[in-house]
Design a protein that fits this description.
Layout lengths: L26 E4 L8 E5 L2 E15 L9 E13 L6 E11 L9 E6 L2 E5 L2 E6 L8 E6 L5 E6 L11 E3 L6 E8 L15 E8 L6 E7 L8 E9 L8 E3 L15 E8 L7 E9 L2 E2 L10 E5 L2
Parallel strand pairs: 11-16
Antiparallel strand pairs: 1-2, 2-3, 3-4, 4-5, 5-6, 7-8, 8-9, 9-10, 11-12, 12-13, 13-14, 14-20, 15-17, 17-18, 18-19
Length: about 300
């Protein structure tokens, strides 16, 4: 995670929580009971609040192919809140998913996840880990059918509405999504460990996978600390503020090769006065990103991930 220090006058006003689990012996407030209610206590000179909650949700398949599927989602959440911390809470989420049917009581999958929030979003189980200070939020998208994490995405700097833009073919099961995970979230892309010039990872693919991964790399000092500003899918040279687009030129076609005639527009914000914004445009041809025809700023390099 990258964090920029703006000046020496910045005062750090938050103290990180201790890695050691706090002592809960001095309970001062208990609402409900130990398994379900809030518990407030003091430990190591700090005020803590532990919240435990359980909820059930119903979900349905997102694509035309699985639109008739129904799911039951059980979510048990434990949040330990340290009011004086930089990241103000540590939350674990135990999630399990079943088919909404009486045919079986075996769960399809279960995970223990670390995130601040979770919800059902457009057929995904989605988690959100909030960023602190100038960091970005991290969104993770899990497939309901088997719990596979398909996309990881940074929140964009401006609008927050381009986390996971999508495109679909009318009267067809074809759909694709695009995401960008930069190095300003709490957890870097895995490729960042081997390449310090990595700005982020562009991901393109379907809900079922596999997802194509492309490395967006810095070529000079201008883009060294670039971050996501906006991500969009553009059809027929007409930008849209809508997060999901329809590819009417392929109406009714079901083969992946029909996915052509649109491009991915990636806008990056820099901390350079001379070049405050960098735009990358990558055409999609026959369901593949066409790097040879990509429009790049001189500060940017693109490479297919291994």
């Amino acid at each position: 995670m990258r964090r920029l220090i703006w000046s020496l006058s910045v005062i750090v006003c938050c103290v990180a929580c201790s890695e050691k689990a706090p002592d809960e012996s001095g309970i001062r407030l208990a609402i409900g009971n130990d398994s379900t209610g809030p518990m407030r206590f003091d430990s190591a000179g700090q005020s803590w609040l532990r919240l435990r909650s359980l909820r059930w949700m119903r979900a349905r398949g997102a694509s035309r192919a699985d639109a008739d599927e129904r799911f039951l989602v059980r979510e048990a959440k434990t949040e330990l809140c340290c009011q004086e911390s930089e990241h103000e809470s540590a939350t674990t989420i135990d999630v399990a998913v079943w088919h909404d049917t009486t045919a079986t009581d075996a769960s399809l999958w279960s995970h223990r996840l670390v995130a601040d929030e979770a919800d059902l979003h457009e057929g995904w189980y989605r988690t959100i880990t909030r960023g602190c200070c100038d960091s970005s939020d991290l969104y993770e998208f899990f497939r309901l059918t088997d719990g596979t994490r398909v996309f990881r995405a940074s929140s964009d700097w401006n609008t927050g509405d381009s986390i996971l833009p999508g495109i679909s073919v009318p009267n067809s099961d074809l759909e694709r999504s695009v995401a960008f995970h930069d190095t300003f979230t709490i957890d870097d892309p895995p490729e960042a460990a081997a390449d310090t010039t990595l700005i982020g990872v562009l991901q393109y693919g379907s809900r079922e996978g596999p997802v194509q991964r492309y490395l967006v790399l810095s070529a000079d000092a201008i883009s060294r600390h670039a971050r996501l500003q906006r991500l969009a899918l553009v059809v027929d040279d007409t930008a849209s503020s809508l997060p999901n687009r329809a590819l009417w030129s392929a109406d009714g076609r079901g083969e992946p090769a029909a996915l052509s005639g649109f491009h991915i527009r990636l806008e990056l914000m820099t901390y350079s006065d001379s070049v405050p914004e960098i735009v990358v445009e990558i055409p999609v041809a026959r369901d593949r990103l066409d790097l040879a025809r990509a429009r790049l700023h001189r500060s940017i390099r693109l490479k297919r991930a291994p």
